[in-house]
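User: Could you write out the 3D structure of this protein bound to beta-D-glucopyranose? I've included everything you need below.
Assistant: Certainly. Input first, then the structure.
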Amino acid sequence: MTTPISRRACLHAVQALTLVDVTAAEALLHASPPSEKGEDWWRSAVIYQIYPRSFADANGDGIGDLRGVTERLSHLVDLGVDAVWLSPFYASPQRDGGYDVSDYRQVDPLFGTLDDADTLINEAHRVGLRVIADIVPNHTSSEHAWFKSALASDAHSPDRERYMFRDGEGAHGELPPNNWLSVFGGPAWTRVNEPDGRQGQWYLHLFDPSQPDLNWDNEEVRAEFDDVLRFWMDRGVDGLRVDVAHGLIKAQGLPDYVPHADGGSMGGDEESATPYWGQEGVHEVWRRWRSVLAAYGADRILVAEAWIHPLKRMAKWVRPDEMHQAFNFTFLECPWDAKALHSVIEESLTEFGAVGAPSTWVMSNHDVVRHASRLAVFGENPQGHGIGPKSAHKPDRIVGLQRARALTLLMLGLPGSSYIYQGEELGLPEHVELPDDARQDPTWLRTDGERYGRDGCRVPLPWTASEPAFGFSRTGRTWLPQPREWAELARDVQEGKEGSTLQMYTSALAHRRTYGLGSGTLEWVDLGADVIAFDNAGVRIIANLSAVVVPIEGQVIASSAPVHSVIPPSTTVWVTL
Ligand code: BGC
């Protein structure tokens, strides 16, 4: 990393600049790293998720790549984020967008080379951004050398012991070992042909059949991942986002799942209710990983992707000797409702605080309907089902964007660490009209189109309104089609434009850093029903979710919609008193 400038020194320098010299002030703020020396950077960082397939395509094949990311890092510096998290770019047959890894130490040629990864990491550090990579330990790809040799070996051989192979039930082993379902639909077991050609054992895959689950009770598996962690730490990454961090350990004896409300989803709602989510044994793995990272100093972090409720239980993933952060999916799933939001914020700060961890905040990622759409779907839309042309409940675009902007300012005003998913800073909605024949998500394929899945939030970004593929790829190719209306949301159209969503994010992030909101303390303020208001580090954040206007006192420094003397409904403002 570049040498840190303390935030206080930076703040003084900014205050010394005249008010009109905003550009110079922002440039100075952006050049600084996220936190003061001695303070853990990740406790208050704003982390930008890059889904490499859809960020920027440098070689023109229609799929984003690492060079594309490196070339555009300056835009993220201008935006004012502290770090980037990159979804997987490793060798993979791409059956699940790269979450099916065939070699954890190689870059997939689609995305570039190991040299490109090194260049990206170094360049990010040079411009003051930290880099979080993604690690997928629950399963490998079926193209991984280990799985190929498991298939070529006999039942009960050591090669099979690295995965979850079991004999089937029934007189001839013709029934799966238990009733578990895949998150993507259909059974979680697939039967294999043995080397002699006969039908034989079954293997477990909580996701696609091309993603066989590893056996985390096997020391060889644990040792291999220690080594993979070191491989990426040695290359300089600042942290790892851990995929399916609630799934590695399965209940002893693999008992049948007794169905309850969460069906075959990713949820682990009840203590030990689901025999494959949130088992106690996962914590031992995280303690081991924490000590692997600790050898690299205190600045390298682990971030859990674990769909665990309630937050009190989730907080177990971030106890002092486990991970540093966990995605706050309770916040992500919270409806547009003042009481519910107030309570999830309070609960998050309390529960994560109780174990000494910061809360994280997140509204969108590559697995969920973009929040600019999700917040304006008036009807049932279970997580993972997506939205498509024939969905019963389509989002209202105007309401969606207005709420998304208001929720963004609420989120960025909170103490803790916030995640931004690429494109939300442009106000991108879900692509709900994506044609069926373009869809690639295994959820869509495995449910025969019953669930649309996640392609609608993964559409390549619009950079420039007037270029082919809106500047995503110079050849005009895109692996998923972009909606025509995205021309008006392209980055170049919004840059420097008063009132644009991009401008709102940029200015909010600059203020967040100036006032130190990420490392502040929240104090609730009562401004009436359906209004969420709190003070943090000298800034009052007021989100009006009511149907009536709310009076403003103080100096407005940021707002999600035009405000004059009052705050309109579905609007958030930041004021200094
Ligand atoms: C990732 C998904 C992926 C799944 C299986 C997740 O939670 O975020 O995109 O499909 O893990 O690896």
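Residues 338-354 form the longest helix (17 residues).
User: Perfect, thank you.
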